Amino acid sequence: MPDQRLPSSPGFWRSPLRGPWFTSVLGVVMLVGITVLFVTGLLSYAAYNPDLSPVNDKTPDKGLLGFYLFSWPTDPSWLYRLNQGVHVTLGITLVPVLLAKLWSVVPKLFALPPARSLAHALERISLLLLVGGVLFEFVTGVLNIQLDYVFPGSFYPLHFYGAWVFFAAFVVHVVLRAPAAVRNLRRMREGKGPQEEAGMEPDFPLVSPRPEEPTVSRRGALWLVGGGSLLLFGTTVGQNFDGPLRRTALLAPHGGADPGSGPGGFQINKTAASRGISAAETSEAAWRLVVRGRSGTVRLSRAELLDLPLHSSALPIACVEGWSTSDQWWRGVRLRDLAAMVGYDADAAPDVLVESLQRRGAFRSAALRANQVRDPRSLLALDVNGEPLTPDHGYPARIIVPAAPGVLNTKWVARMTFGDL
User: Fold this and answer.
1) Degrees to nearest 5, angle at CA 149 with 257 and 145
2) Are 1 and 210 spatial neighbours (Cβ–Cβ below 8 Å)?
3) Structural domains of the chain in order of their starting residue, each with its CATH number
4) What's the whole-model pTM score?
5) Whole-angstrom Cα distance, residue 169 to residue 175?
6) pLDDT of residue 15 exceeding 90
7) What is the pLDDT of residues 153-205, one digit of tens each?
8) Closest among 229, 255, 233 to 244, alpha carbons compared
9) What does the buried/exposed string (b/e) look like for 90-105 if buried means 16 or more CB atoms within 10 Å of the residue's CB?
């Protein structure tokens, strides 16, 4: 008989809550949630248009893993806001479910022998990759959301490759375990008890052969897990909205009141000071926008830009960290009109490389696709909500494009180069 004091013995694990039914319920929730997270994560990566230009591509050696990439659309204008809000909010909401799921199957990690058959060996390997992968993805994701990313290496390739490794293990594990999960859920509907559950896995049952006295039922434990997820949802989802609801986002980096007041009193990610932008270089006397294209180079002051035909667009700002604003009222020069100034037909405007004055941080340059340039709502914005841009919102000029991630809406624009990138 195995030594009951060792974790490799089923008798070591004495919680009466563990069992195939409990694990299966959590597994079904994770199956749906992880699938949504994976799809929205891939869509988020595609939204950066990483195949357009090296400046957009934070994972240049993605190779075959970039097979799904496509030109990111501009409609609907709230597309990226919805995608990333779902991705981040759902990810945080699933944390209690993930922890409960890992707790429910931890005895399996210590089962001996390590492999009883080829199928069992594949399951064990997939389980190890699954546990390691999901912890890695959630930890790096939460660190990035909180804007205090301290994990060694760049977030983009680590999270990208980690997602593929994790999801591959996830698919293998689901294929191997789905039949048992379906059987266990069917038994739940039939009202079968834990002893019958234990008999289903005689080699290493999740149901303890010598359980302690229960202090809560399995359904009660599920309610506890669900309550934890609901609490995290309630303290995160507010970052996707303006006004009082944002103050409920206690666990999100952009919870609380919007910064400042007035027309520029809405959320930002990076300030002028944090990116090394000085008031002297953005002054009316010093700053000039340099626009390059097929017919040459044009230099424009802010006053000259304001003398051009101006247009308005109501568009949100949405960032990879999950926060977003409602529509702000932007006013400026259409990107397609700037392309026309340097030799292109507005309806056939090409891609553009936008360069910022910022000296620190990622995305000092960003490329936009032709469909983004040609959209009449895409602006080199000069004003927002009826007033000139504030320094932290990109004064003297910034890009605003429908459905694009926030980092592609370059602030403190210095140069724009239309044409081959």
Assistant:
1) 40
2) no
3) 10-234 (no CATH), 273-418 (3.90.420.10)
4) 0.88
5) 10
6) no
7) 788 899 999 999 988 888 887 787 777 667 766 766 666 544 334 334 445 56
8) 255
9) bbbbbebbbebbbbbb
